[in-house]
Every structure is written in C-alpha cells, then in structure tokens.
Amino acid sequence: MTIARNLIVTATLALITAGDMSARAGQDPVSPRPVAGAPPAGHSLAAQENGRLSDRLLVDVSSTEPWTDTGLVLGAGDRVEMRAWGTVKFDGGRAGATVTPRGVAGPAGGCGFVATDPKVPGYSLIANIAPSLTLDGRAVFVGTQWSGTLPIAGTSAARGRLFLGFNDKAVMCDRSGYDSWGFRNDNAGVFVVDISVSRGR
Known about the structure:
Blueprint: H1 3-12, E1 15-17, H2 18-25, E2 33-34, E3 54-62, E4 67-74, E5 79-85, E6 88-89, E7 98-99, E8 125-130, E9 140-141, E10 145-149, E11 160-166, E12 177-179, H3 180-186, E13 190-198
Antiparallel strand pairs: 1-12, 2-3, 3-13, 4-11, 5-10, 5-13, 6-7, 8-9, 8-11
C-alpha cells in the first residue's frame, strides 16, 4: 500500500457499521442462477433414492464485500456440497495479487480478516451459517470444494442462512464494521459457486 493510498483511505474511509449490516440483512439476497439441468430450488428430485428434497443453484460471490447471502436457509441434518472456481484480484491488482478460491499461503487469521481463524487462508472463499449477516469472525474454509452436514463446527449458528464470502483483511478489529473503500476499490472479480443441498429429514 503506497503513501498516496494511505492518504486516500484516511480521507475517504467508509465503514459499514454493525447496525448498517443488520439493516442490510433484511434486504433481498442475491438472485442465484439455477444450474442447467437442475430443478428449481426446493423441488423434489424423484430420482433420489433417499427421497430427500434438494436445492441446487449457482451463486456469484463478489470480492467487493465480505459476505454474499445465498438465500438458502439451512437446518440440522441438511447436507451441503459446494464446488467453486474463478479468479479474484486483490490489493489493488498489484503484480501477483490474483487468487483462486483456495486463497494464498502465508499469514492469515487475526482481527483484520473476515475469518479470524488462522487455519483459514487469506483471500480465500469462505462460508458461514448465521441468522443474519455478521462480522463475528466465524467461518469455514470452502476453497474449490467443500461438503458438510449441519451443524457445522466453526460457524456462527447450528442453523440459519448460508453466507459465502471473500476472506479479505479489511475488517475493523473491534468487528464493528469493515473498510468498504478497500473492498470495493482494491478487489475485483467473483468466485462462482455451485451449491447442492440435500435436506435432512
């Protein structure tokens, strides 16, 4: 980060407070794209032997904000499988600052990252289960492939909405907000995530 960049941030830093985020949680989630050949979300898959309902959709996870609401509400026993691809530029697009959903090797975690767990790679694709959008630091690493059955250790709640995010280092250490200028101006691109949910009985 250059001196000029620091001056701009000092002059124009825009923080979204926890209250603002709570208000946003009441807004409509992203409009997911159904996967070709898959049924609309919530429709039964008759071919499934276990008779469970299934949701399947594609979601674009933006690098310009910490979390994207998938619109999926999950409960105990729901099985989630995700595959992800795409590339994202971060840190103002400096040389080498391009990542896949796996993120980068090196120091991570701590109060500045979206996910405070040091085992979660920086600038990677992450997920959380929560009643509403939160910056509590809890998340699991998704990378290019992930699966699990609720409840999921490391998430905010045993049931709730599925949020996907970009693990950038631009969160206030008191978790009251994040540097929206940094997210929106330093980052570019999306990760595309194919989500399949088999509903528990």
